[in-house]
Amino acid sequence: MLRLFLSTLACLVTLASGLAFPGAVGFGSVATGGSTPFVVTSLADSGTGTFRDAVSVSGRNITFAVSGYIVLSSPVSLSSSITINGQTAPGNGIGVMGREISASGKNNIIIRNFRIRQGNVDSDTGKSAFNMGKASNVILDHCSVEYGVWDSIDAVGTANVTVSNSIIAYPIGQQFGAHLETGPATWYRNLWVSGHNRQPLTKANTQYINNIVYNYQAAYTVANTGGLFSHDIIGNYFIAGPSTTSANDDYFQMNANQKVFASGNFLDSNKNGALDGSAANSVGSAVVLSSAWNSGSVGLATLSPQSAYTTVLASVGASPRDEVDSFVISVVQSLGTKGAIVTNQASTGVSNNGYGSL
């Protein structure tokens, strides 16, 4: 009963503030989520009281009376106007593994403190860990998205998105972080680890603020596209790792169709175990903007890249921090001496075939 009361109270505070939740930022902060309380009481894949049951009806504000992994035997499709409060789970928290979570074509989705770990136990190699294609008004905050097969996050044709304070790490299969088109989109204080490319791939007007990217082969990417987009890239730290073949691919395929305001970004390229990078604001052949394209971007960039490194590593991802996220953080803390781009989550050496235990 207390959990239901707190969930309802949080919803009322959210409605009063006009934000997805107090402290929400960026374009996805307009998401309204759901208001009808629903408690997940079972870790089963399907049936009464399960996560699949919870998200099958629009308008729900979902809390958890159970902790652990929900092992999915098939993809789960979210309804519109859903709030998923992973922080309400007892013990070590809540997560899903083995299949895609999809918000495709839906709107007003709020997901917080939730673990989404697909992995190669998913037999469908064309699916992503989280898919929100053609969705609108979506915010992921303090989520942990690992072991995506197609992409970790796929958001083609999606409008008004924020991904904040989240871990996007160790994609397998294509080894891609995130693919977003249409926008606008905000990527804020995220940790990107051991992805080949797309951290993110953004074909949209974009805010990219106080992110940390580690052990990349290509980091912030636009790709060869005819789209005309504007990008505010502020206060990020790109850190090379063992898999980084060219540290200067921190900005990748930035063509002349793009307009970029790049300020206060750093690159640490020497892989020497110390955080000792230097300014990195050269954005290829893109048109250089003298001021941010979005009036709110500079106000969001409250951290230097050095402070972003400390703050992000301390607070990013789902809470409480579990074995997988602890492993990810420890790799980044090696500052160039550890890390690998993998094709199988078990290659991480984390227990339970790479998934760890909740």
From TrEMBL:
Q: Which Gene3D superfamilies match?
A: Single-stranded right-handed beta-helix, Pectin lyase-like
Which UniProt keywords are listed? Glycoprotein, Lyase, Metal-binding, Signal
GO function term, MF aspect, one? metal ion binding
Q: Which InterPro entries match?
A: Pectin_lyas_fold (IPR012334), Pectin_lyase_fold/virulence (IPR011050), Polysaccharide_Lyase_1 (IPR052063)
According to the UniProt entry, where is the signal peptide?
A: 1-18
Asked whether the keyword Signal is assigned, the reply is yes
This one is known as Polysaccharide lyase family 1 protein
